[in-house]
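Quick start: what a row looks like.
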Amino acid sequence: MKLIREMPDLFRLVGRAPINSYFVREDDGLTLVDANLPGRSTRIVEIALRLELPIRRIALTHAHMDHTGSLDAICELLPSAQVFIGARESRLLDQDFSLDCTEPQRKIRGRFALVKTKPDLLHPGDHVGSLRALSTPGHTPGHVSFFDERNGALLAGDAFQTAGGVAVAGDLRLLFPFPALFTWDKKLALESARLLRDLNPTCLAPGHGGVVQLPLARIDRAIRRAARNFR
């Protein structure tokens, strides 16, 4: 994995495949957003050591394996780190794929790691360090995005992708189709994308693809495209 400084307090960690984790620098150390694929734990911790900053918190956008795969191994290396996931999404970590009666009755898609770690539960508006948790269902039922209120950075998980082009979750991009193929409900994904756009983010930091600075015009185009394609 390599480390890319995207903003003064935001660092992207990415390997050969376009699968991102992020370090958010806080006054007391780092918040790690998403735990990437299995086998990445040692490298993630080594990069934090190189920055000479401890990983204090781990915040998960959702439970797909490419976002939680190294969670248990990281927690074994860093047993004092706090771990957080959305309350609804936590059920998927427990391999509970049942749907609430108020939710769209569509099959939940994708691969989910068997995780022993029991995170603390987040609700909309809760904070993990400087990051405000936002309920952004669609890609999964309990997907959460994070907004850094200090600098306007939007850590969107798979609510958006930029690999293959900026797109709303569920809008197929042939150069990188996987977020779309594993999206649970497109209508909710579009509603979540509009909610995130209304934050007027200064940068878009997705789970897959490069970070986009000053992203509003590209987000607007992605939302218009998704609205047409999801009819």
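That is the whole record. The CA atoms of residues 111 and 229 lie 25 Å apart. The chain has a mean pLDDT of 97.
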